[in-house]
Amino acid sequence: MKKAIIFGITGQDGSHLADLLLSKGYFVIGVSRRASTDNTQRIKHILSNESFELSEGDITDAHSVMNILKKHEDVDEIYNLAAQSHVAVSFKQPALTWDITGKGCLNILQSMVDLEIHARFYQASSSEMYGKNYDEREWTLAEWTGMQGIDSIPSYEKYQDEDTKFMPQSPYAIAKCAAHHMTRLFREAYGLHASAGILFNHEGPRRGETFVTRKITKWIGDYIRWKNRALNPTQPNEYNFNADNIIINEYKFPKLRLGNLEAFRDWGYAGDYVEAMWMMLQKDCPEDYVICTGETHTIREFLDVAFKHVGIDDWSNYVVQDPEFYRPAEVDYLRGDCSKANKKLRWAPKHSFQDLVKLMVDSDIAT
Asked: Which among 38, 30, 24, 130 has a CA at the least distance from the CA of 80?
């Protein structure tokens, strides 16, 4: 039985990865920071599994990390998914973000070297590291003709891959860059089997409620339940809208408040992406890989699909753009190229953008 340690077990990715590893017959140790409130909601279904152990630890404390690895020196794989991963929060709490997202990775790597642990290591890197930067290439004639028609003028596509230079636009992204380069350094300097996955935005029903995709789908679920209570089946129902609320028969529901709707993101399903993490550690040679769908969509497009799924074609009366939710520095465009992962790992996403949005909406309506 293989043994794996997951730092960041209580997050979206940690819970999906634990499910995957348990299904493959691993013994999984999940590391979670002590909290005064229950933070195990995403892993409640595996807490009683005989092949799972929940261990208390703090990735920002080198001594804590060292003790965990001493106890499990025979571990085969170590996954670092722990992070303060909310970009907006990182501007308000940059030092905390650094300690968890940047320094935490170093604590694991240094402990592995000091204890001579020869496990395979995975670092969760992020597309946010690219920031404002991207590469360009010209469409081939066949691609352009197929998409736009024979008489169209050739154009360029923007993308990010393993060779695109990083230009981070947030404290979170800067911390991720440091952890990414630390992983490369320890691989080259100490011969660790250490790989990093540069994962583009990956979402799902287990996504935190403050992230924009889940914020949208949770709002829709709450609104549908409220609407069903507000409607009177025995008489005509009156719909009205003011600046802040939706009104049905004098009952009010606050509108969805969002920031920039024009940011482009490459969105995939988290359950697909954790498979790529595992695949990286099965390769004999450690490398870094971009994991993405290769498509980019705006938040406006996400809203289109989500609202149409519940029968609302025009969401303009339901959404308010609020300057409070704009970032101090915006990342305008993310679209990955995962050709390397396609070729070397034989990995490809299984869920389309539309599949992902509908999955999240359905889950939040059912909750």
From this structure: 30
50 is catalytic: no
Tokens of residue 191, six digits: 């011969």
Which residue is catalytic, options 126, 127, 170, 195?
126
Does the annotation count 172 as an active-site position?
yes
DSSP string, 199-220: EPPEE-TTS-TTSHHHHHHHHH
The active-site residue out of 130, 134, 159, 172 is 172
Rounded to whole angstroms, what are the CA distances from 77 to 74, 114, 120, 179, 181?
9, 17, 5, 18, 20
Question: 148-202 pLDDT, tens per residue?
Answer: 444 555 567 899 999 999 999 999 999 999 999 999 999 999 999 999 999 999 9
pLDDT over 70, % of the chain: 95
Q: Pick the catalytic residue from 32, 64, 79, 128.
A: 128
pLDDT beyond 70 at 345:
yes
Residue 262 appears among annotated catalytic residues: no
